[in-house]
Structures are given as C-alpha cells and as structure tokens.
Design a protein that fits this description.
The structure is a single chain. The protein is of the alpha/beta class. It has a single domain, classed as 3-Layer(aba) Sandwich (Ribose 5-phosphate Isomerase B, Chain: A), CATH 3.40.1400.10. It is built from 6 helices and 5 strands; from the N terminus they run E-H-E-H-E-H-E-H-E-H-H. Strands 2-1-3-5-4 form a 5-stranded parallel β-sheet, with helices on both faces. Helix 4 links the parallel strand 4 and strand 5. The protein is globular.
C-alpha cells in the first residue's frame, strides 16, 4: 500500500514519528512536506497529497496540522476524496469501515505521538464495508458528481 503523508510546521515532529511507523510497517511513503518548522500554506500540501490519491499514485494519506481540521477541510476539496479527522481509534476504524475515508487527519496540538500511532494503526487495519455503508458513500459520490 502506498501512503502519502504531509503536514504543516505545527505537526512536523509528529509527521516524522508517523512516517517512521509507516516505513517500518513496510508501506511505501511519499512525503509531501513540510520538511522543517518554517510556516507553510498547509492547504497546498493537503491538495497535493489528496490529488495523488485521486490520480491513483497513492492509496491513502495521513495529513497533520495543529488541529487536523484545516487539513481535513482542504483534502475534502479534492474531488473523490473523503478525509476524516480522527483522534481516537474507534473514529479511525469507522472512518474506513463506514465512510471509505482514504485520508486521515490528526492534530499535533490535540493528540500525542503514542495515541497517534494507535489511531494510525486502527485506520490502516480497517477496510470499507460496502454491504453496510455502500449506499451512503454512493450518495456522497453522486452528489459530488452532479451537485444533487
């Protein structure tokens, strides 16, 4: 599985921790930055990482900022992307199983590294369950396609 990862300056250290977890888990990781703690426009990082999923270059993405909110809002602007902000393992699991979320976002000012690792693992281990939630996700896709 190929995973995109990206962050703003507030979440640089957490990105480094989670990137290492992904690499040690055998995932192919494409890092969209930022690569230091200098201020950046995080929407550009979110757009690029989410676009890599929409284009099929990556399967999923992990996006991090101070709260996880801005990254989720930004990634969700890319057609076909469902990004979910998750700070607990149950939400991370349900983001995949119920919503087929290809992107998880977390806030470095909200969650510590050890819990973030557990949330990431729960999300990675979960798969979409179309028999239960397929019609709901299909409705989201239909609205996205035609605005109705």
């Amino acid at each position: 599985m190929a995973i995109a990862i990206g962050c703003d300056e507030a979440a640089f250290e957490l990105k480094q921790v989670l990137k290492r977890v992904l690499q040690e888990g055998g995932y192919a990781v494409e890092d969209f930055g930022t690569f230091d703690t200098e201020p950046v426009l995080y929407p550009d990082i979110a757009f690029a990482a989410a676009q890599s999923i929409a284009e099929g270059r990556n399967d999923r993405a992990v996006l991090l900022c101070g709260t996880g909110i801005g990254m989720a809002i930004s990634a969700n602007k890319v057609p076909g992307i469902r990004a979910a902000q998750c700070h607990d393992t149950y939400s991370a699991e349900r983001a995949r199983k119920s919503n087929d979320a290809q992107v998880i976002t977390m806030g470095a000012r909200v969650i510590g590294p050890e819990l973030a690792k557990m949330v990431l693992q729960a999300w990675l281990a979960s798969e979409f369950e179309p028999e239960r939630s397929g019609p709901k996700v299909a409705r989201i896709k239909a609205f996205e396609a035609d605005g109705r």
